[in-house]
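Project standup — Tuesday

K.O.: blocked on the structure for the chain from last sprint. Re-posting the sequence here as requested.
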Amino acid sequence: MSKTLAYAYHGTGASPGGNTGRIAMQQLADVHFNESRGKAIQGVWNAFYNQSRKADDRFHWLFPPGKNERVAALMAWIDTMSPAIASYGLQKFLQTRQRGAFFVNAEYSSSQAPNQPALDWMNWEQIQPTMDRVLQESVGYYKPAIHVVIFVYLPSPSGNSVAIWRRKLAIPDNVRLAYQAQITQIISALPTTYVVHVDELPRKPDATPPPPPPKKKRKWYKLWLSS
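H.V.: unblocked you, prediction finished:
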């Protein structure tokens, strides 16, 4: 059993026994991906954390991914590797015992594996300071027993902003069921509510129009004359 899985089982009272469980456990233990260990995000630090600029100016969510070849190729790779990436994400959740997500820089390649995308796992404490609502809500309220969240981002030439896209990847059923007890235990120890920090104040409601002026009362003699 890997150290990650041994840690996940520690204190749960659960056993990894059973043929199906052993197969799923082996599948999870065998999944590995290239990681940048924070190097991919160094060049876009201002895009993620420069709070002198609003999050809407740093994160751009509406660009079509097909317009950039690297992004399109990366999205296709994620679709192909979805079960393995989701299993790896569950491994990270079990290891860290925190909500988190994968981030992939479409322009980064490591010297050790230049032809492979590099994943970075970031937890809630690292994501909340971005002040971006979509990032925070995606990580604070996804269901770790069902899927894993992955973000692909493309830095601007200055590195002060990124175009960014989100995918939710389903965890394979056999892996999810094999670790259901551990997942449930970890979730029970996590907060049920995550405070989302944003730099935009809620829009004030439109001012209520003044009431119409009261009708003037007609004098009694005018009423009498008109009757």
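K.O.: great, moving the ticket to review. Residues 82-96 form the longest helix (15 residues). DSSP finds twelve helices and five strands in the chain.
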